[in-house]
Design a protein that fits this description.
Blueprint: H1 7-19, H2 35-49, E1 54-59, H3 66-79, E2 83-88, H4 99-108, H5 120-138, H6 146-160, H7 162-167, H8 169-183, H9 187-197, H10 205-211, H11 219-235, E3 241-246, H12 256-274, E4 281-287, H13 289-293, H14 302-308, E5 325-327, H15 333-348, H16 354-360, H17 363-376, H18 385-402, H19 408-411, H20 423-429, H21 446-452
Length: about 450
């Protein structure tokens, strides 16, 4: 695989690892141990692209690879034309029981293969352009007849949104208002209506009056807006949406009544998927085993526990990749060494002295480095991948490539300073509850999520 990788992709991945962050692309190059999920996930993506729906719950302790799995899957989804959105569930920023907030975060993090977050306006513009092309292809009107052309586009939009309009007419009304504002050159109103379609609060009343809509999006309208968004995505060439709800275990730390509301919202969403309300939706949620098995999590709501029930009594080698819950095994030294070999080979593809890199940083040294770093982290292999890769690239591979007389066995004593660790890593080294630091605060900062873990399964 390494031989077919372009130099640009190699550099993007290596540069991100040098900074200690998750690469934005090229995660398939680092997907150690995920091959067993590939076929099943591709089947699910194909089902979604045909107008079906899919759902999985990914379980694992910190360091097992949940976030990495979600982003690896997102890359596969984008290659098949799907849009994606990853949301960190948080008791303060994105509480699961407030579906209007979940929808707002979804649109803020919406991305496609060609557009970074938020891709909502680009998607809506593409949808309108597609409708106009269909009207022109029909040959009944031309762009020269502006009024007739606009009416024909509106009629086609109504036909495409008929199912949504029956339950959430405001979504269709806002799209009509947005198109009229664009046609009139009223960019301020158009931007306000896009914000309203994205679930943003406090949109100017004057803009809402143009579209004939009132108030802000509420909990009950959120699922209708999601249905409308899926319709728009499908009509403009994106056959579905991969929605990741990350860190759902934060529900365990909220007040009892709020927790039950959040669990019930999750049950409702899963039931709606099963009922066929969301064609084109692939929902993935991640959480710790304690969330799925403990009395402060899923087990607190028996109907939800029944929907997520998966038998893990057999050896993990025989886990089905098609099960509702997918179990990610913990990271170990063997996988850490395999990951190191993969990154070394990627690095060598862009190095000035590739032969020296491969000779000095051989497999034996990578095993020594993995063991030494894990020892510095108190034997906690699960928190080692991010720091291991950063040190491997920045402290070892770069120096071997730059200096002919640098020998990492002799010249590089492995040390870890407190400043190098994230809050979660520091807490884990200290023997605290992994995930309790940093998870409950703002998760709207994507950079924080990138720095907290480079989880690799």
């Amino acid at each position: 695989m390494a031989g077919a990788v372009s130099e640009a992709r190699r550099r993007d991945v290596i540069n991100a690892l040098r900074r200690g962050t998750v690469p934005q692309t090229g995660l398939d190059l680092l997907a150690v141990g995920l091959d067993r999920f590939g076929t099943a996930m591709d089947d699910d993506l194909a089902t979604v692209a045909r107008g079906g729906a899919a759902f999985h719950a990914v379980r694992g302790e910190y360091g097992s690879g949940k976030t990495f799995f979600a982003r690896w899957l997102a890359e596969r989804a984008k290659r098949k034309g799907l849009a994606t959105s990853e949301i960190q569930i948080s008791e303060t920023e994105t509480p699961l029981h407030r579906l209007e907030t979940v929808y707002r975060r979804l649109t803020e993090r919406l991305s496609t293969a060609t557009h970074q977050p938020s891709a909502l306006r680009a998607v809506v513009d593409s949808w309108l352009y597609t409708l106009e092309e269909h009207v022109l292809d029909a040959g009944e009107v031309t762009e020269d007849h502006e009024e007739a052309f606009a009416a024909a586009v509106d009629t086609l939009a109504e036909q495409r949104l008929a199912d949504v309009a029956r339950t959430t007419p405001a979504f269709a009304s806002a799209l009509r208002g947005y198109r009229r504002a664009l046609a009139d050159g009223d960019t301020g109103t158009a931007e306000a209506l896009i914000a309203w379609l994205g679930g943003q609060k406090s949109v100017a009343a004057s803009a809402r009056r143009v579209a004939g809509v009132r108030g802000d999006l509420d909990h009950f309208g959120a699922l209708g807006f999601l249905q409308g968004l899926l319709t728009v995505l499908r009509d403009c060439g994106h056959p579905g949406l991969l929605l990741v709800l990350d860190e759902t275990e934060t529900l365990q730390r909220v007040r009892g009544d709020v927790r039950e509301k959040g669990l019930n919202a999750l049950r409702q969403l899963i039931d709606e998927i099963d009922a066929g309300r969301f064609p084109g939706l692939f929902l993935v949620l991640t959480g710790t085993p304690a969330f799925f098995d403990g009395q402060q999590g899923v087990q607190r709501l028996p109907p939800l526990a029944q929907r997520l029930a998966t038998d893990f009594s057999t050896d993990a080698r025989f886990d089905s990749p098609r099960a509702v819950q997918l179990r990610l095994p913990g990271f170990d030294l063997e996988r850490l060494g395999e990951l190191g070999r993969t990154v070394r080979d990627l690095y060598a593809g862009t190095a000035r002295h590739p032969e020296r890199v491969r000779a000095v940083v051989d497999d034996a040294y990578l095993a020594v480095l993995a063991e030494a770093l894990t020892g510095e982290l108190g034997g906690k292999v699960g928190i080692a991948p991010r720091l291991f890769l950063r040190k491997l690239v920045a402290d070892v591979l770069d120096r071997v490539d730059d200096f002919a007389d640098f020998d990492p066995r002799r010249d590089y004593p492995v040390t870890v300073t407190d400043a190098e660790l994230t809050d979660v890593e520091r807490n884990a080294v200290a023997g605290g509850s992994v995930g309790s630091a940093g998870s409950g605060g703002s998760t709207g900062d994507a950079g924080t999520a990138d720095e907290i873990d480079l989880e690799l399964s």
